[in-house]
Amino acid sequence: EPILVSSGDGIAEIRFNRPERLNALDVELAEALLAAVSRVTADAAVRVIVISAEGRAFLAGGDLAHFRRAADKPAAAAQLIDPTHAALRVLAKTPQIVVGSLKGTVAGGGMSIALGLDLLVAADDTTFNLAYARVAASPDCGGSWGLPRLVGFRKALEIALLSETIDAAEALRLGLVNRVVPRAALEEETAKLAARLADGPAI
C-alpha cells in the first residue's frame, strides 16, 4: 500500500510507504494520500493526525519519472498535483491538529507539504531543499504561501531561488520546524507530542 493508516487513542497516523523511492510522490501515492486524509478527518474520534514516512526519507518531492514518461506534461502535472492539493486543502480546514514527523530528505513538494502542517518534529538527520528552481518550476503544494510566512519574504526568496540544502539545526533556527530530536528518538518524541495534544482541548 502506498499509504499506511493507523489510529488509536484519538491519534491517527498517515504514513508514506514508498521507501524505495524516498517516498517520491507519484499518482498512486497522491490519490492514496487524499483518500487517507479524507478518511481520518471524517473520524470524530481522531483529535490529532500525524504525517510520517517509512524508510530513510520523509518525502523527496514529486516523482520526476512520471513527467519524463508523459507526452502531455501539463496533464501529467495535474494528474499528480490535483489530488495532493485536494488533500492539503482538507488538512488546512480540519480542526484536528496535524503533526509532521520528518527525517532524511524533505525536498520539493515534500518540503511544501511539511510547511503546511501545524507542528513539525524533525530528526537531526533531516535536510530541507525547496528544489523547484532546479527543475524550472514554481512551488506547488502551498510552498510559496507558507515559506515567507515562516521565514520572511527575503529569506524565502533566497531559499527558493538558490535551492541550497538546509540542515535540521538551521531549520530550527529559521522557525521551519518546532523541535529537532535524535533520529533514534523521532517516533517516540512524535508520539509523546501527539498524545499531549490529544489529551488537550478538542477544539
**N→C terminal distance:** 32 Å
* Helix proportion: 40-55%
Which class of secondary structure composition applies to the elements? Answer: alpha/beta
* H/E series: EEHEHHEEHEEHHEHEH
Biggest pleated sheet: 6 strands, mixed
Low-confidence stretches: none
Oligomer: single chain
Percentage of β-strand residues? 15-25%
Question: What strand line-up does the widest sheet have?
Answer: 1-2-3-4-6-9
Give the strand tally: 9
Tally of helical runs: 8
Shape: globular
**What is the CA-based Rg, rounded?**
16 Å
- Average pLDDT confidence is 95
Question: What are the defining features of this structure?
Answer:
203 residues, alpha/beta, six-stranded mixed sheet, three-stranded mixed sheet, 8 helices
Question: How would you describe the overall organization of this protein?
Answer:
With 203 residues, the protein is an alpha/beta fold. Helix content is 43%, strand content 20%. It is built from eight helices and nine strands. Strands 1-2-3-4-6-9 form a six-stranded mixed β-sheet, with helices on both faces. Strands 5-7-8 form a three-stranded mixed β-sheet. Strand 2 (11-16), helix 1 (27-41) and strand 3 form a beta-alpha-beta unit. The longest helix has 21 residues, at 73-93. The model has no long low-confidence stretch (mean pLDDT 95).
